[in-house]
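Morning, I've got a small favour to ask if you have a moment. The fold is given in discrete form, as structure tokens running alongside the sequence. I'd be grateful if you could look everything over and explain what you see. No rush at all, and the record is pasted right below.
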Amino acid sequence: MTKNTTTNHQNNPNSVTSEAAATPLNATANFARFGSGMTAHLKAWITALQKANDLLPSNLRFDDVDFEQGANDQGKISLSLIEQLEDLPVFALSVVVQKHALRSSGGSELDKKSDFEAHIAEWAQQNPLWQIIKVVRSTDELQDHSGSDRLTSVLTYRYILMPSDTTIMQPGKKSAAARLLDEGITAHLRQFINTLPITSDLGGDAAIDCHIVSLAKMLRPHRVAVFDMDSTLIEQEVIVELAKHANIGDQVSEITESAMRGEIDFDTSFTERVALLEGLSTHALDDIQQQLTLSAGARTLLATLKSLGYYTVLVSGGFTYFAQRIAQELGIDEVYANELDIEDGAVTGNVQLPIVNGERKALIVQQVAKRMQLPLSQVICVGDGANDLPMMAIADLGVAYHAKPIVRARADAAINATGLEGVLYVLGYAAQDLL
């Protein structure tokens, strides 16, 4: 567990960090290095990509990726190759299906898995301008998990999608190709889903996630993972729990609705809601803290990311009183949140500036990356609300977690079928990679 201590980073008064934050992560100008935990993951994707070398430009080959672990237990991959690949319409397709959805349709699970794979192959046959290459591991099935976390039992399917027509394999074609693929594959998979008797109690449409992202994002070893707290790392919205405890739920809801209608901005709504908490005792805060529950998959996700060498950051529009404890429980390295002003054992109702709003979240992410001497292309951000969009927009990968429609639409990927462990599936890992 990380022991967090308050530090004074320049321009970051909301910060609670560990001393490890001062240590830059290793990345040379030409290569990104990866630890042994990433080797099988990268090897699976690159092995699949090598099967279609003849479809790539002649100057773009992934034959010389060093998977051997040297004295520093690190392999390396050319950043130049990744950057060139990112400009092209070459995509990673990761499909995550809840196993119970396949079971519900009758027949053996193996038959249904084969049916699903056949349905994807059918799309490829109907779209000859595209090549679809399966990414293979020994198994992509989540095994029984003996830990304390609640994980969704899933099957994962991973593919590379790339043009078989050289006229499409052009940088200028990427955006249009991404939209067409997203619409076409999603619609095709929806046909298969509609054949399954998936009811609302079985998850409905949320029984499947389909992620289509640039393959470069699968191959680039990310180094920093940033998380929102409320309704992301934890299941609750803390301000709502505080309002319930103080019997001001209706008043807080009115302010929230006014903000959603655009009548007041986030900072004003936050200030008004905090003012209503005046007099709430620290005993009440502690009671609420005890009632907060981690989101399903949170422990597994953070443990896996740490094993892969990620530096983790919590950036919340909530309060350090709760965020620091959640971070300690999950072993998160660094925390940014609003300070809840307390005097004589009670909340004063005053707001300490600056408020951690959406713009400040993005600024914090930029400052963390700069301090770590890392480009934003090695950062991923995960959140659920509109206030998370600015930081998600500047990260290499912005992931929406059980989010509102506007957030899902603007994110690089959206998780609905699993808990937070789904972030690993977005990153291209198989179910068997989870700790």
In short: Confidence is low (pLDDT under 50) at residues 1-11, 18-29, 199-204. The two ends are 16 Å apart (CA to CA).
